[in-house]
Structure to design on (877 residues):
């Protein structure tokens, strides 16, 4: 089947019930999207499907159809993505880094929906993403910093 | 394991030499030496370097690092040490993971290639700097020779050697050929006075690749022609595979093969999705073995029974028995700690390729040298025939000190005609752990008329992990890790610590968990001291102060924490601050946790203030990160952490029944890093150790009730 990933069409010869996560990682070699739980409980596999954040580990590839997929490898293609990556480095968010692809994709979806999130917005959007290294406080700071950095016209929707 | 391995008399001096036979580059090899004898023989004849600073003709500086990077910033920290002396920027240093080799890459403080015990930086501090200094001196000498000027008239700056008198300047890359003929300075002096990098918060060099998806963790390895496997071991711990009908898995699109091991089954496929689907389709029959009726209640009862037996004396001071009988009153309590999983976010994963007579492994390991030896043994190969390539780790916390899962991948790969990546499911990771085992403690404290301790009796019931993990920390039947920190940093006149060894049944694997022994004993000691303060009617900080060495670093840290946390500021009703302190891993730490309790008696932890004196902080930013992370890790355990066994099977399977702290529960954390010029202490673990006691001490202040077991009752935790 044909899937549109990060702007290009790619072919995958897999069962339609195969979770998108394994198609991205094993078939396409896009290993930036991570596996953490397999049951939509940790957020490590978060990608954008049709502009919405989705857990790739529970998204059957056969359900995607025409919807474009965006992964961490192409996050820097948007100003929101760039602002987040910059803030992540400036705040020194990253420890082991394993959760951070998912955190960034989730945060990008948040900023695109809510250009100026408050703490409650951040809690609501980000609490599905586990970080075992405990970088939550810095993620919060970095999201706010990225939001402040984004020129208003460039902000969402 | 919080201190250098007592089996060694470590030398921290670097032994330096030029690696022979490398053309066109300056490769300065040096040894982070295991012990004095080894270093001396190395100097005498067969020098075997274990770390390398390589400078290529194009000026690229590469550092081969023997430590694992699992988030603790080891790559950045060692890059800073070398860069400081070499007069370059850390961002100009490329790091490579060393391959697994226990002889070459032994940690100077542990004696093996192990990343744990918050010891990496403590072992690297001097040798890494000396290596940078030696390389710089050789480059300066090479330039001086070329210009025919005195060495003392030249100096290094920003990757160049300068001769200010003539205004000449030459890049390192141009000098490497000549520099490699310069004799290597032995014991080169380190910079003194103001340092350029060390002590500054600088952005980590490993972060850019971790925010764009390009960083390669063990789980991300890709090889031509590789297959993907999903594996399941007998759910009853220690059980074996009886039989399985392979057909349902083989019928699935993309599945290539089913591999049977004595205790597990693996499905090999073209991608992990097919492997997982294939595994789920199988109905293996297992032989449960000896643990078929094992359960947590039985394990706890065994610990409780052991509390009533006299253990081996681990430590005594003064006359504890006499002082106890002369005491005015006594305080007695039993403490119970549960079994815990590591639950790092990257599930265990290992790629292996077995060819006739050799095996290559791609993995993220905290002990790659051990992994190499264990794989060699399992496959019946000499160690030289096994190469272990190490990678970034998505959280270690001690789980990846074990190698049984690496051996398992090699045994699967032996039956597969291609490289195979074996990825554990989260469920497998949770159910086949190397858990922190149950620990129980019996405490009896004799008190004088003012409620101050005159005699301290601590009986520890726990496993002797060090007996097999690092026997240097196992002396006369006593596990020095489990018994470490058994009376905290306090100056007590009379004390006795005894150890009752209580190993788990065979098949239930236990190991090391972030914070090791001090995390267990820190909880107990800090709970007891706090309780004694309440009973004496004294402020818990003042009470501790009275028991600490005047002028000590620990006392200064406690005072600072009391000040920073604004403990005099008023809190709302049903809120309180709890304090806990610890001296371990070469560091001193104090944590003040604010706890709020609602009408239903449920708590949340909105704020934590932490002060740490970890000696000279190479990068205070990384220290802060590690303390913050350690606190969240400890909070997850205090609020939720509990692995239970029923009918021989671990009951928890994923993050719904082994919950961890999430964004909405994460407290605001303030970390103060004290200025210090002492040698660097560890920072990966102490943060974890002080959380549970600080939180429970706050709860004591609110409710008047002393909690003696972890984790909290779920009915006490506010989850949203
Ligand atoms: S792997 Fe998809 S949410 Fe955890
Ligand atoms: S940085 Fe390690 S899990 Fe988040």
């Amino acid at each position: 089947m044909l899937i549109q990933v990060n702007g290009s069409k790619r072919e995958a010869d897999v069962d339609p019930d195969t979770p998108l996560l394994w198609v991205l990682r094993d078939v396409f070699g896009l290993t930036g999207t991570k596996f953490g739980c397999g049951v939509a409980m940790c957020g490590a596999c978060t990608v954008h499907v049709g502009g919405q954040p989705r857990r790739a580990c529970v998204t059957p590839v056969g359900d995607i159809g025409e919807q474009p997929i965006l992964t961490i490898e192409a996050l820097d293609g948007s100003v929101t993505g760039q602002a987040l990556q910059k803030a992540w480095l400036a705040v020194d968010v990253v420890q082991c880094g394993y959760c951070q692809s998912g955190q960034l994709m989730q945060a990008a979806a948040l900023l695109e929906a809510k250009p100026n999130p408050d703490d409650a917005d951040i809690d609501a959007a980000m609490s599905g993403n586990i970080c075992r290294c405990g970088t939550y406080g810095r993620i919060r700071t970095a999201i706010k910093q990225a939001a402040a950095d984004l020129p208003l016209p460039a902000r969402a929707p | 394991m919080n201190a250098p391995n007592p089996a060694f008399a470590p030398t921290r001096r670097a032994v330096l030499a030029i690696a022979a036979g490398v053309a066109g580059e300056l490769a300065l090899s040096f040894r982070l030496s295991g012990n004095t004898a080894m270093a001396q023989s190395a100097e005498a004849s067969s020098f075997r370097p274990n770390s390398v600073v390589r400078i290529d003709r194009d000026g690229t500086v590469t550092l081969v690092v023997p430590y694992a990077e699992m988030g603790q910033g080891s790559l950045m920290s060692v890059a800073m040490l070398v860069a400081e002396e070499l007069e370059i920027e850390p961002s100009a240093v490329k790091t490579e993971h060393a391959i697994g080799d226990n002889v070459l890459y032994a940690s100077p403080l542990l004696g093996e290639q192990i990343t744990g015990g918050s010891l990496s930086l403590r072992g690297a501090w001097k040798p890494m700097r000396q290596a940078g200094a030696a390389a710089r001196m050789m480059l300066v000498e090479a330039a001086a020779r070329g210009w025919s000027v005195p060495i003392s008239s030249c100096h290094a700056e920003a990757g160049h050697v300068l001769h200010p008198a003539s205004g000449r300047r030459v890049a390192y890359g141009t000098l490497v050929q000549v520099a490699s003929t310069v004799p290597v300075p032995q014991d080169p002096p380190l910079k003194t006075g103001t340092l350029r990098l060390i002590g500054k918060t600088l952005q980590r060099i490993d972060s850019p690749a971790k925010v764009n998806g390009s960083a390669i963790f063990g789980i991300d390895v890709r090889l031509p022609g590789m297959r993907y496997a999903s594996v399941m071991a007998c759910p009853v711990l220690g059980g074996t595979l009886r039989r399985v009908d392979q057909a349902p898995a083989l019928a699935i699109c993309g599945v290539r093969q089913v591999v049977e091991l004595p205790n597990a089954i693996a499905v090999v496929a073209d991608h992990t999705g097919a492997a997982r689907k294939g595994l789920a389709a199988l109905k293996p029959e297992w032989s449960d073995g000896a643990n078929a009726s094992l359960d947590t209640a039985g394990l706890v009862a065994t610990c409780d029974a052991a509390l009533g037996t006299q253990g081996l004396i681990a430590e005594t001071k003064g006359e504890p028995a006499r002082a106890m009988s002369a005491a005015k009153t006594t305080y007695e309590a039993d403490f119970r700690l549960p079994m815990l999983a590591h639950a790092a976010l990257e599930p265990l994963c290992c790629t292996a390729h077995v060819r006739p007579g050799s095996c290559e492994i791609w993995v993220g390991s905290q002990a790659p040298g051990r992994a190499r030896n264990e794989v060699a043994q399992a496959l019946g190969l000499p160690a030289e025939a096994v190469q272990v390539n190490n990678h970034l780790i998505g959280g270690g916390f001690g789980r990846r000190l074990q190698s049984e899962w690496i051996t398992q991948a090699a045994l699967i790969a032996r039956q597969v005609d291609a490289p195979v990546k074996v990825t554990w499911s989260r469920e497998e990771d949770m159910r086949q752990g190397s858990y922190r085992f149950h620990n129980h403690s019996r405490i009896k404290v004799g008190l004088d008329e003012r409620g101050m301790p005159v005699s301290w009796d601590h009986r520890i019931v726990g496993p002797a992990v060090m007996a097999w993990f690092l026997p240097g920390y196992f002396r006369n039947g006593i596990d020095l890790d489990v018994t470490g920190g058994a009376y905290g940093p306090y100056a007590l006149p009379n004390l006795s610590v005894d150890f009752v060894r209580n190993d788990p049944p065979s098949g239930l694997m236990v190991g090391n968990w972030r914070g090791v022994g001090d995390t267990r004993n820190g909880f107990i000691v800090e709970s007891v001291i706090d309780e004694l303060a309440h009973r004496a009617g004294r402020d818990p900080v003042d009470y501790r102060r009275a028991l600490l060495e005047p002028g000590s670093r620990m006392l200064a840290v406690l005072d600072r924490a009391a000040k920073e946390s604004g403990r005099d500021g008023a809190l709302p009703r049903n809120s309180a601050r709890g304090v806990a302190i610890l001296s371990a891993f070469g560091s001193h730490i104090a944590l003040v946790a604010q706890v709020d309790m609602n009408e239903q008696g449920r708590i949340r932890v909105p704020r934590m203030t932490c002060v740490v004196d970890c000696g000279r902080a190479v990068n205070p930013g990384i220290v802060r990160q590690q303390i913050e992370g350690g606190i969240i890790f400890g909070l997850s355990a205090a609020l939720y952490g509990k692995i239970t066994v029923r009918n021989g099977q671990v009951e928890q399977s994923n993050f719904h029944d082994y919950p961890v702290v999430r964004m909405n529960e994460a407290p605001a954390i303030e970390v103060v890093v004290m200025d210090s010029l002492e040698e660097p202490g560890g920072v990966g673990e102490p943060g974890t150790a002080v959380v549970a006691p600080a939180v429970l001490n706050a709860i004591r202040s609110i409710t008047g009730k002393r909690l003696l077991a972890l984790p909290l009752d779920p009915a006490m935790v506010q989850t949203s």
Notes: Chain A has a mean pLDDT of 95. The pocket of FE2/S2 (inorganic) cluster (ligand 1) is lined by residues A 35-38, 40-45, 55, 57 (CB under 6 Å). Strands of chain A lie at 2-5, 8-11, 46-49, 52-55, 69-70. The helical segments of chain A are 20-27, 79-90, 100-113, 119-126, 136-149.
